[in-house]
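Hi F.,

I've been meaning to write this up properly since the lab meeting, where we talked about keeping a consistent format for the predictions we share between groups. The idea is simple: the sequence comes first, exactly as it goes in, then the structure tokens exactly as they come out, then a line or two of notes. No screenshots and no reformatting. I'm using this chain as the first example so we have something concrete to point to.
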Amino acid sequence: MANKLTFDAIVVGGGPAGISAAITMAKAGLQTILIERGRFAGAKNFFGGVLYTHALNEVLPDWQSRGAALERPVTDTGYWLLSPDSVLRFTQKSERFKKIPAESYTALRANFDPWFAQQAVDLGVLVITKTTVTGFLRDERGRVTGVTTDRPDGDVYAPVVIIGEGVNNLLTQQLGLAKSDLPPRYVALSVKEYLGLPEKEVEARFGLSGPDEGVAIDIFGDVTLGLPGTGFIYTDKTGISIGCGLLLEQLVINNLKPYEILARFKNHPIIKPYLEGAERLEYGAHLIPETGYDRMPALFTDGVMVAGDAAGMVDALHREGTNLAMIAGKMAGETAIEAHKQKDFSAEFLRGYRRRLQDSFVLKDLKQYRRMTDFLDSTPHFMETYVNFANDAAYRYFTAHGMAKRDMEKEIIRLLTRRRSFLGVAVDMIKLLRSMRG
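Output, unedited:
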């Protein structure tokens, strides 16, 4: 017992949630250990997306002077509606996006996470990699008092454990906080490629004036064969992140292979010119929980809190996940700090973690959009019907056909009713509005 490895807090997982929790506790003087199963923080995270600086500001206010590993500030962002031969763009490019620091940046997690973890180390966190947490240590009353690992003599003790293990939340299940693996209708599979291009070529193709500008576009419609799902294109410093994601259930039902969907997307006549001559440097896939608020696991028990993907904290509609994870990790860390002050690590005290989340945008947003996955599941025609209609209607509107405008308007209405009856449209819109009102 004399050699027992003891800390004030244990963090499981070196992603945004775990690192944010570790930094928060270390800044308050807690002796913290972070255990990551990958070779380094970020080794298991294949992500090319958008990172929102409001969350980074809260966790690490001096991130700019610390040289955060970010790609490009997002100055041109929005949605594309893609049909088989057209695209309808709803994007904004604004000088207001160019303020320093920007509201958001494109980022590559393989670069950002190691940098983020190093900031934790600099603040005194002990980061242990290539180590898997296998279970929990408990006292005579069954309360968690630490973790077991796959290392010889690898037990680690602490009165509080914060779990940020990701979507494969086996430890969360082991505690009984999550009932089982998520069913395929509530898990999306995102496949992505990182394509290398010279910096100037990236800027020329996307109309950027320099490295202080960047593009982040989410794409709906033909990118996923009209099925519920999304595609994306983000510009990085010397490359492009491109990918798409669908619910596992849709992949199975329609006998689809993710890499074939991505290849088809890349060859779309609107998309292909952006990618000409680019070199594929990375390819990978990532599971994304889309459980919604109602199916989130319990977030705490005696001596334990859960944050990030392990807790289903993803708002896919607004491409938010990393920022939710960082804020949740920070709040879990703050709760652990208070627990140490009160010397109370009971579930009742740690309930304060959930209250913090409820008072923040994290659970408020997840609750508001909790029906979105069910809406898309109940309207599998939605993307194909309305995205294709929008493109056809725009084509008619912006083309002179020698037709009276009133007749053209009637023709646009017929373009819709040939796809969906007025009653069907009304039902779809009511369902959509209900899914967005919580």
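Notes:
The chain has a mean pLDDT of 94.
The chain has three domains: 5-64+104-179+295-368, 184-289, 373-435.

If this format works for you, I'll send the rest the same way.

G.
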